[in-house]
Amino acid sequence: MDAEHVETAIIGGGQAGLSMGYHLTRRGRPCVILDANERVGDSWRNRWDSLRLFTPGRFCGLDGKRFPGPAGTAPTKDQMADYLAAYVARFELPVRTGVKVDKLSKGGEGFVVDAGDHRFEADRVVVSTGAFHDPWTPTFADELDPQLVQLHSCDYRGPSQLREGGVLLVGAGNSGADIALDVARTHRTALSGRHPGHIPFAIEGAPTRHLVRVVRFLGHHVLTRRSPIGRRVLPKLAVGGDPLIRIKPKDLDTAGVECVPRLAGARDGLPLLEDGAVLDVANVIWCTGFRQSFPWIDLAVFDDDGKPIHDRGVVAAEPGLYFLGLKFQFAATSDIITGVGRDARYIAKHIDAQTKTSRAAALTEEMVA
């Protein structure tokens, strides 16, 4: 297999990968962005139809291009997808779609990226596939009646995918509550899980505009790994669930969503709750989140829990390897749109400096020889 040499391979073409490409090209550093999706923005398009972002439009733009439309209104997932496509076109970013990376390994002084019939030899690699991308469901999901429709939230698009009959959503976080409201328009709906709390004010509109700015400032500048309070708080946030951001308990009540105890297992092919009740439903939607996993990376750069060992995305154990878009990579905003730009800028600066240092050393060697 012939290999194509690239200076920097960016794996993942979502907002993190595009932001990385923007900051590298601004510094004159060549790169290629490899995206498994068929179109730029599909990571947003391929989510449930009613999804809207939590962040007002004024905070949804990447560096160099503001998000179009009303500044105080949260965009839809399709508007976000279209924005990312326009971002690529505006800055002529070198994105290659339909390229799914199968393996990242060491090769000589650089790295080898295998993607189907393609092979790239890269001096440097930035892994920007996101913080969590492997959908997780409990093992007892296999014990449910095969006649039940089972979907993970990443596969849910709308109520038309469901059978007639009741729907159980497992996981009472933001995704579960959001999809529950969508499903409740056409189906009897139950939401299972521990209530994670909720933000007690509306997140859109003029009255909360300044409050949103304050929250963003805290997440971006105060809750960082550089500040004492950030180092103390971020580990606690990592093990706790996010509160409901847009939806309030009263919204679920009004829509007729029944909040039930956590799911404990299966009995006779039906969902069994912790209180011993068995739910006679025809559909189960797993809003149980994702797990961080990089089985395709054949490099010794992970801790015992499988998490990348890095400092602000820079992997000391494997010079030339970087991660971007991880949860709490540097700050509470590192894995969302408003935070990837700063982390990408930091890594681009590091790559630029390392490249210039390497070339200067090579030139010195030539002169001495």
Question: Layout of SSEs?
Answer:
Elements: E1 4-11, H1 15-26, E2 32-35, H2 42-45, H3 77-91, E3 95-97, E4 103-107, E5 110-115, E6 118-127, E7 134-135, E8 149-152, E9 167-170, H4 174-183, E10 189-192, H5 209-222, H6 228-239, H7 249-255, E11 258-260, E12 263-267, E13 270-273, E14 283-286, E15 290-291, E16 321-323, H8 337-368
Parallel strand pairs: 1-2, 1-6, 2-3, 6-16, 8-14, 9-10, 9-14, 10-11
Antiparallel strand pairs: 4-5, 5-6, 7-15, 12-13
Helix pairs in contact: 1-8
Characterization of this structure:
It is built from eight helices and 16 strands. It is α/β, with parallel strands linked by helices and 369 residues long. Helix 1 (15-26) crosses helix 8 (337-368). Strand 1, helix 1 (15-26) and strand 2 form a beta-alpha-beta unit. The chain has helices spanning 15-26, 42-45, 77-91, 174-183, 209-222, 228-239, 249-255, 337-368; strands at residues 4-11, 32-35, 95-97, 103-107, 110-115, 118-127, 134-135, 149-152, 167-170, 189-192, 258-260, 263-267, 270-273, 283-286, 290-291, 321-323. The two termini are 34 Å apart. The chain folds into two domains: 4-133 and 292-368, FAD/NAD(P)-binding domain (3-Layer(bba) Sandwich), CATH 3.50.50.60; 138-286, FAD/NAD(P)-binding domain, CATH 3.50.50.
List keywords for this structure.
single chain; 369 residues; alpha/beta; FAD/NAD(P)-binding domain; 2 domains; seven-stranded mixed sheet; five-stranded parallel sheet; 8 helices; 29% helix; 19% strand
